[in-house]
User: Fold this.
Amino acid sequence: MKYLLQFSITSLFLSIAVLLLAANPSSAQPYTLTTLASFNGSNGMYPSDLILSGGTLYGTTRNGGDMTLNSGTGCGTVFSIPVGGGAVATLATFKGSNGDGPFAGLLLSSGTLYGTTQCGGDLTLSGGFGDGTVFSLPLAGGAVTTLATFNSSSGDDPMSNLFLYGGTLYGTTMCSAARNGGTVFSVPVDGGAVNTLATFNGSNGGWPSGGLLLTGGMLYGTTQKGGDLSLNGGEGEGTVFSVPVGGGTISTLVTFIGSNGEYPDGNLLLSGGTLYGTTQNGGASNDGTVFSVPVGGGAVKTLATFNGSNGAEPCGSLLLSGGTLYGTTSGGGANNDGTVFSVPVGGGAVTTLATFNGYNGKDPEFGLIFTGGKFYGTTVQGGDLSLDNGNGCGVVFELTPTAPPTGSTHLLWNNSGIASLWNIPVSGSPTTASFGPYSGWTPTALASDTTGNSYILWNYTNGAACVWKVSSSLKVTTSQSFGPYSGWAAKSLAVGPDGHVHLLWNHTSDNEAAIYNITLGSSSSSQAYGPYKGWQTTQIAVDSNNNTQILWTDAAAYEASLWNITSSGIQTSQTFGPYAGWQAQSLAVGSDNLARILWENTSTKQASIYTVASDGSVTSQPFGPYSGWTPSGLAVNNDGDSDLMWNSTSNQLSIFDIASTGSFKSSPYGPISGWKAIAIAPGP
Assistant:
């Protein structure tokens, strides 16, 4: 077959591929989102801010715990979880009298956790719900100690994080006796009476739900409402304020008016004489902003505006690292379930680092912590969506920078004897080259090596075969012909780590098999097996130890057998089935040396991937059925993901990139008139 001539219709295929990719943009993100723990009610519901100590994350849940309380929703918990993930440990459960609804995160000092509960305490108040508490708890868990109890005169609904200064805890309450009220308060760290440092009245702010920061003897914070009472039906749209640490007059540093933000909620961040924060609404699209303001007061600078697609309603605190601000939005993004974002500290475009979809979390209302090169946070809902009326009870998540992408793919197409080879990178457009037609020859199989070369198997009408080696630049570098051998047909090929091509032959009448071990362009050796009545070989693979694996099928009995042949000739086998209606169709081996067998239900066109562990145990992943689509090939890429190829009745192609977790994304191609994808192999 050395006389075969090559011609290219690369430009045609490349232009088609570019159009397909443009219509299906990549959803790859620079970070990987991992769920470390899901809440289920009994271990808590609706988690808040996290803190980190000694490799353990600590936080509160505003509901859950003892589910016999609070009409079946519980009064909340304090929890911990290892930073690497694991079971949620409940350190304390609230019962109403010792607090109810810990909305904010925790403060850790000298082995003791401190926090607030929005309700509870004195249950003779607020219709039996109480007005809230300040509490403490040993870091290892145990009994909750109530340090202070609120009432309407001292404030109620404390929802802020606490901070400790000079033996005193400081925070805010959302409400008070005053209209649009709320207070700034302090409590001795060992407990005692609530000291009201300042009271809001609307014009100087109202509804302070965020925590406080201290600098230069002044406390700084935000109020969700108040300020300009001509706005928002007389309630105002929020402020940034300051008050002396010992108490006194509230100074309004900034009044929000909608265009510069509305409803600031989270804690402020101070860096270099500038305060940074977020507003839930306002800005150009009314989906919220990131803002800054000088610590001495002045004009609001809008650093970024949210528009729904890049997030909406940021209500958590900001984190500053390396000149970049990081935070969360409780809504917006691709699924309207919230995002993790970044913005340059000087202002600029919003970058979406991760998008929530319900299953991996929903509604992240709080900020992030950063340690060990990773971000950690919570979502109020999401996780197990069978709970809480389909909303889930919340998760703890980890966000890790994604390693440079790997896992490119090689595809082989056929059009009446013309072959087209596609190299599809992780991102960007495929490179393609076409070969043929060559009278009597048909492309039938594809393999690849670890350096990016592809190997195409051609079959001739008289039973001869030819193997091509094609470089990563899509140039034919070597070809070698074999046969014809009476009654034999070349079926499949694979390439070992030693660079040898393993060519699998079937004898069509007596069910024998033969393997050619080929040094391409030079010598070859062969080994025959069988015959075995009813059995035919289907596909061959070679693992990183240079062991050969062969898939045999007995179609009539719906059985399969996987052979492993070591480089020293030792042969073992494992049989699967019978599974009525299912046929083993394809074999692939990953860098982990585990075999994956693709099964097809010939009636329903469902697919199932069997992964065979080293001890012979099997895990399976089912897919489909998808009307009009048939599973048609399997490969395992260098990133460990399986690539499952589907063909439709209209010659469309879809590749499922399947992670080890079972989640997958699909990439569609075509239809391209006259062409059909026939084989898939991993790229470098």
